[in-house]
Amino acid sequence: MAKCNLLEQRAGCVRSVEVWPARSDRQAERLRELIAVLQSVDPDFVTVTYGAMGSSRARSLALIEELVALGFDVVAHLACLGNSRDELVDLIHRYRSLGVCGVLALRGDPPLESTTGFGASELHHASELVELIRQESDLPVIVALHPDGHPDSTDIASDRNFAAEKLGNADLGLTQFFFDYASFVGLQSDMMARGVATPIVPGLMVPSSPKQLLRMTEIAGIQPPPYFASADWDLDNGLDRFRALALDGALTLARRALEDGARGVHLFSMNSAQVTAEFFARL
């Protein structure tokens, strides 16, 4: 197994940020603002999303190339869903030639408007993709983990077994966002109980509005955080108070995880320059 060099920086404690390729002029402007913030934050690596069924492949490749040219260490997302084995091999080699510092191996998701259409997929599990990346490159491999269980899982025990299988062959785990710290602790404990000691970094999200929070928690199949349930939110007003509580909540989770020995923090930026700047400034 290749040694993961992603943890050799910052005394073994990493700060990382997820970014999306832009799909419109307005999103491109937001992305430019975010990249400017990232240049001051100086994260240990930036992850670039891939899009459902590879829907943003060309934009993802272009963004990866740009970020590498700017001096960022980039981890490229790669998903089984919608790709043949040959296409995956080609992308692994393409990522290598672009100079990425790692690959985040995912099963992937169908487009939101469809739950079918796996297309040319020949690999159906992230664990299979981890093995393929190992065969085709020496790149560090990261896998995604779900503290509250994958939304498609039938039960938490079987989900933990699948998670242990892929994490055991990876260099690093990044979690999906969560709002209950006990879920993160439970994931770590279950991996250790299964003999898997690969480091797990918590992934955190700072939702910008109640509407966004409800949408993201519905997709992830988890409950909204306590600060949402404790108030009768007007979904269009009171955004300043909501955002302050959301940021405080994410920072509390981050600090608690770091105090307990987590090897870093991963921020789902939602391409928000303001959130990214405030999160790392206060952290």
TrEMBL record:
Cite the CDD domains for this sequence.
MTHFR
What InterPro entries does this protein's entry cite?
Answer: FAD-linked_oxidoreductase-like, Mehydrof_redctse-like
Q: Which Pfam families match?
A: MTHFR (PF02219)
Q: Which Gene3D superfamilies match?
A: 3.20.20.220
Q: What catalytic activity is recorded?
A: (6S)-5-methyl-5,6,7,8-tetrahydrofolate + NAD(+) = (6R)-5,10-methylene-5,6,7,8-tetrahydrofolate + NADH + H(+)
Superkingdom in the source lineage? Bacteria
Q: Which cofactors does this protein require? A: FAD
Which pathway does it take part in? One-carbon metabolism; tetrahydrofolate interconversion
Q: Which UniProt keywords apply?
A: FAD, Flavoprotein, Oxidoreductase
Name the family.
Belongs to the methylenetetrahydrofolate reductase family.
Instruction: Tell me what this protein is called.
Output: Methylenetetrahydrofolate reductase
